[in-house]
Design goal:
Elements (H helix, E strand, L loop, with lengths): L16 H7 L12 H6 L16 H7 L22 E5 L2 E2 L5 E4 L6 E4 L7 E9 L3 E11 L25 H18 L9 H5 L15 E7 L20 E5 L7 E3 L8 H13 L19 E10 L6 E9 L8 H7 L5 E8 L11 E7 L3 E5 L2 E5 L9 H15 L8 E5 L5 H7 L4 E6 L2 H13 L5 E5 L18 E4 L8 H10 L3 E6 L2 H13 L10 E9 L9 E8 L1
Parallel strand pairs: 4-6, 11-12, 16-17, 16-19, 17-18, 19-20
Antiparallel strand pairs: 1-5, 2-3, 3-4, 5-6, 7-8, 7-10, 8-9, 10-11, 12-13, 14-15, 20-22, 21-22
Helix pairs in contact: 4-12
Length: 569
């Protein structure tokens, strides 16, 4: 990355009416009202009504609903707006953020969003939710399969919430994700893609070399009754309906799809999952699954974490049973079975007595081996406990952190101060620490701060300070006792940065801000504030966006990571 990177600071007015409405923001710096985020994040609606309701004839539907190719020249006599409960024939034009398919009504341009619809797919869908300027549709039947179709290797891909785009070629997935980021930057961030500088700012998405078995952490849930998709009810045995261990059905906290193998985790993790599946239902063991409605049962979650032995480089695995009560001896038969798998070096039990669905326990017991495992990232060693945060795709995290380091343009003389916001367990700041004067990290989670300090000690890093604090509740005295940073790294969670923090950064005027985002929608909003300000609050923008790099961290999912570099004007 050249030091003289192109900078960009030209705004555009969206020409598309519906996108303009969705991009509107409130004075509270929120994107909650009619934004891409809200549009794409509504949960699918369970609808068991018969398909016979209000079916529009095929020829009328083709006139009413725009196609990606066939209906561009059609002129409707009047604008058409579908009603809740109507069943339509639709064509998916593209993917919106979070992976929902976008369909549009001809002439009116009215938008319909459909979960699990992919570009080019013609399908029958029923309107389940109707809003002022868009509607949600439930797909009932595929008429013509989507473009760039590939056979999904996972038997659960059509129903599991994890891999919605597994039947879409990986090249098409990358293209869709890159386009989603571009659209959000233009329509929410208000950056103009008509200017030649935009090409230098918006970088091509970085692909993931490994598309399967890339996750180092998976969490499976226990349930009293297995969930089976409606179309498989006749072919499934009654055994499928009792005692489930797997993943939640999309949009439902109380329905568990029984899963025996997940292609996103390692082979050794799948061996553990299969071993537990074989024996946990044995009546002689007396183990019962947690019921989220009656708040009864013992087993809540099975969490599997993968790492590497720092001496041998061989994989090592942690197994975490989350239970509702304090009775680790009940798990002894499962422990004895699992310890026959060589990669298992740690088995722990987190006890969570609350009625909530979290996997973090009030107590933790080590039932076998070590209480932590290790992983290596950018040449540093990190200890991973059952509940500590760590990048879920280690290999791609190495790529991500290299991009962050490149964006920092470090002088190499060890003179710079780095402010690391939302630092988690310190992974980003620590990878830079040996090339800068000092790193100051802020994080709200106390355990993460403790892990960050421990990771610094483990790697003999003495120029890193980590502070516990809520960055959404800062005041005018925040960081006043610290030296002014040359570089700010901010890695917020999905809601993005609070307006208080944005105001702080604009007053701080650090030479460079590196914004790492797991949500392109809120990232685009925050980039807009940092570059153009918030006129309604008399806040003036002070930065130029010099580069925006999408990174595919999680193939076959809708998630997108971005690394953005901003320079002080």
């Amino acid at each position: 990355m050249a030091a003289a990177a192109a900078t960009f600071g030209i705004r555009s007015v969206p020409s598309n009416i519906w996108l303009h409405k969705f991009g509107a923001r409130t004075a509270a710096a929120s994107i909650r009202s009619r934004s891409f985020t809200t549009l794409a994040s509504l949960s699918p609606v369970e609808d068991t009504e018969d398909i016979q309701l209000n079916v529009i004839p095929k020829e009328d539907a083709r006139e009413s609903v725009s196609s990606t190719s066939n209906n561009n020249n059609y002129k409707s006599n009047k604008s058409y707006y579908p009603k809740r409960g109507q069943t339509l024939e639709l064509v998916c034009e593209s993917l919106a953020f979070k992976g929902k398919g976008v369909c549009k009504v001809a002439d009116s341009g009215f938008v319909l969003m459909c979960d699990r619809a992919l570009p080019g797919e013609r399908f029958i869908g029923r309107v389940t939710r109707k809003k002022d300027n868009y509607a949600e549709v439930k797909k009932l039947k595929t008429i013509t399969i989507h473009s760039d179709y590939v056979e999904a290797p996972c038997e659960y891909a059509s129903h599991c919430g994890g891999c919605k785009t597994q039947s879409l070629s990986y090249e098409a997935q990358l293209k869709a994700k890159e386009q989603q980021v571009r659209d959000l930057v233009v329509h929410v961030g208000k950056f103009s893609d008509q200017e030649p500088e935009f090409t230098g700012v918006m970088k091509p998405i970085v692909p993931c070399d490994i598309q399967f078995h890339y996750r180092n952490k998976m969490e499976f849930s226990f349930g009293p009754k297995g969930w089976v998709p409606a179309e498989q009810l006749q072919e499934k045995s009654t055994d499928e309906f009792v005692y489930a261990l797997g993943l939640h059905a999309p949009g439902f906290f109380d329905k568990v799809l029984n899963v025996n193998k997940c292609l996103l985790q390692s082979d050794s993790a799948n061996e553990v999952l299969a071993t537990v599946q074989e024996c946990w239902r044995d009546p002689e063991l007396g183990l019962s699954p947690w019921n989220v409605h009656s708040h009864t049962g013992f087993l809540k979650h099975l969490m599997l974490r993968s790492g590497r032995n720092i001496e041998t480089g061989l994989p090592e695995l942690m197994v975490n049973f989350v239970t509702s009560s304090d009775n680790p001896e009940c798990l002894r038969p499962l422990v004895e079975k699992i310890t026959t798998i060589p990669e298992v070096v740690s088995i722990v039990n987190n006890v969570n007595t609350s009625i909530g669905n979290t996997s973090v326990g009030e107590k933790e017991y080590t039932l076998y081996g070590k209480s932590t495992i290790t992983e290596i990232l950018r040449g540093l060693t990190f200890q991973i406990s059952a509940n500590s945060f760590f990048q879920t795709n280690t290999r791609q995290a190495d790529v991500l952190y290299k991009l962050i380091e490149d964006c920092a343009f470090l002088k190499g003389d060890g003179s710079e101060i780095v402010l690391d916001l939302f630092c988690g367990t310190g992974t980003i700041g620590l990878t830079l620490a040996k090339r800068v004067k000092h790193v100051y990290g802020f994080e709200v989670v106390a355990q993460a701060v403790s892990d960050a300090c421990q990771n610094a000690t483990l790697n003999f890093i003495n120029n890193a300070t980590f502070v516990e604090g809520d960055l959404n509740k800062i005041d005018s005295t925040f960081a006043s006792n610290l030296p002014k940073p040359d570089i700010v790294i901010t890695d917020p969670n999905r809601p993005g940065m609070h307006i208080k923090l944005i105001k702080f950064l604009l007053r701080l005027r650090a030479s460079r801000i590196i914004y790492v985002s797991c949500n392109p929608a809120t990232c685009a909003r925050d980039l807009n504030y940092l570059c153009y300000g918030v006129p309604e609050q008399n806040i003036e923008g002070r930065y130029r966006l010099s580069s925006l790099q999408p990174v595919d961290m999680f193939p076959h999912t809708a998630h997108i990571e971005c690394v953005c570099s901003l320079e002080l004007r």
